[in-house]
């Protein structure tokens, strides 16, 4: 009976102790297993985080230039990263220097290390990256897209008039040379053919390299990214000087020095990056910037004409039903209002366009900033710079007029002297076409590779205006994207005092060849810009800018000429498109 009672009382003391020991061992075993699992996953997680830091710094290094890869600059990059507690990220640079006095530093090895703790153990992730010295080229190679065909001019027998355009490739070392004032030229595929009547397309252009062009397509010229400096003695005066130009690398703010090394343009005192190449989101597009940094842009080689280039239709007239053409010896497209100009320029990239351009091409009406970029490059050692001591230098006026009541202008022409002009209603008796010994003096380079009609011809509307303007054209342009226009302040009317007040209101603007290249008394004068060019600023009722002057302006047409109009159609106003390829 006692045994039965004891058996029903449960574990004995010894049994209980044994059970506790077993349970303790089990708990310890389970805890160890879970702790090890925790350490495993913790190690994996921290290892993944460590690798993310390595990857982030590696990607940053990929975006840096070879010359920027130094211990101190990498440390600055690391300090700007959001590194979590418990991680230490370091990077070191080792140069590979071949033996020999003339050896070059061409390769750097970057060691990236992350150390972190897992439990009481220190773990480490380490990788090595190789950075080779880039082949740095300035000015920037022209940026091409579908529809664009590189071309160069072949002179036969030493006579430019007997020369011809031929198709080349973007890798042709003779396509362009800005050092020799040979700017890069392309033709679009709107009617472009070579000998035998073969139409040029993206599919067959490679097989047509070297072939003579028989029918020209619309022509554009490349303006590469640069920084500029205007001499102090010429800045904001009516006395012209040489504009100093430094070409910049890619979309950066750096230039290549004489040793082939990358240097920030900020090291060069007084230089400004031209705003036409810059992203204006931080400046509210104050100086005609775009919506991104660009390596350059394309400018129409001649004033615009159209697919209906009749004299009696002003070369096109006030319509959007025609296509833009950019050709020499064509009637300029005039008598078209600013709204329609903007529409036909943007339509150049529409689906099914005649040029072969993709929808991604940014075709647009030129702005003051882009006009200024062309003018400044022209007034430098890389262009047809006008020297006050040389009456033959500089861009010659296009003074062509055939004497009709339509005030007809023709593209790519010049008169018999630099400042030739034509009296309204009287035909020019002496003029030269673009591909003649005198004709090339009317280009931005004083050779056939430059931009024409920058002086004389038709006044050219640009997408730049006073925001206080009081007409439907201003209302329309205000609705456009910021990259498509350039706005100016000022509430003065078109009186002498009003124009001058508006001129001074915009004294902080730069790059547009207005304030920087005219005197303090400008605003309503015919000859107070550089080279005695016109300096008449817009007023409220005439809020839009015109550039370049016209065939009948004596000593007032030119690169630095500006005046104003309503934005409406006029028989003596034309335009010029530009193209940006990102």
State mean pLDDT (0 to 100 scale). Answer: 91
So how many helices?
7
Strand order of the largest sheet: 5-4-6-10-16-27-19
Give a count of the beta strands, DSSP E runs of length 2 or more.
27
Number of domains: 2
Helix content: 10-25%
Tell me the structural class: alpha+beta
Low-confidence stretches: 1-7, 37-41
Gross morphology:
elongated
Gap between N and C termini: 101 Å
Fraction in beta strands = 15-25%
Radius of gyration: 34 Å
Describe the sheet with the most strands: 7 strands, antiparallel
Helix-strand blueprint:
Layout (H helix, E strand, L loop, with lengths): L1 H7 L4 H51 L7 H9 L7 E10 L10 E12 L2 E12 L16 E8 L2 E9 L17 E3 L5 E2 L3 E2 L13 E3 L3 E6 L1 E4 L14 E4 L6 E3 L5 E3 L7 E2 L22 E5 L4 E2 L17 E2 L12 H9 L15 E4 L2 H11 L80 E8 L5 H6 L8 E3 L7 H10 L18 E2 L9 E2 L7 E4 L14 E4 L7 E2 L2 E4 L2
Parallel strand pairs: 20-21, 20-26
Antiparallel strand pairs: 1-2, 2-3, 4-5, 4-6, 6-10, 7-8, 7-9, 10-16, 11-12, 11-15, 13-14, 16-27, 17-18, 19-27, 20-24, 22-23, 24-25
